[in-house]
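ugh ok fine here u go
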Amino acid sequence: MNPVRVVLASGNANKLREFSELLGGTCVEFTRQSDLGIEPPPETGVTFLENALIKARNAAARTGLPAIADDSGIEVDALGGAPGVYSARYAGEGASDEQNLAKLLAALDAVPDDARGARYRCVVVFVERADDPAPIVGEGSWEGSIIRERRGDGGFGYDPSFVPRGDSRTVAQMPQDEKHGKSHRGIALRAFLAAYSARAVR
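structure:
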């Protein structure tokens, strides 16, 4: 089966790498929307699913191609689930990963170590076309906690301070293949691929 060209509704090089690595060797071949001159739409949703749908439908409408998008972030129990859908812009529009993480650590400064539970969440949405009435959705979550310091040089986002449950390393200290096997995005993408493959053989 020839690979299906799919627009990844993101300009994030790290995200493209993760998608390509996680779904490498499958029937899907990704092109970043930024490589096609497409600007991201405003993320006005209040849930990860709503934002992923907004992004996927926008990319499909602009290109006429199938599109896939994810919306992901970190939810911290002590902050009532924040930053959540605002994870990528927690410190303001255009904020860097370091600025977002610095704000999160500052917000948790007075929170004791045993009350710093958190989880990464990801929702992946695939649409055949902009008005696809039945998008394929995959979801994943990864439980852990936020430590006070930064450790490791890998990953991105909040990875240097997120320690998965049952581990002593941050995500930024994990080898990529191990991260892919456990992460919220890996779980969501595998759920998407299973649903995509099931639809393809009907």
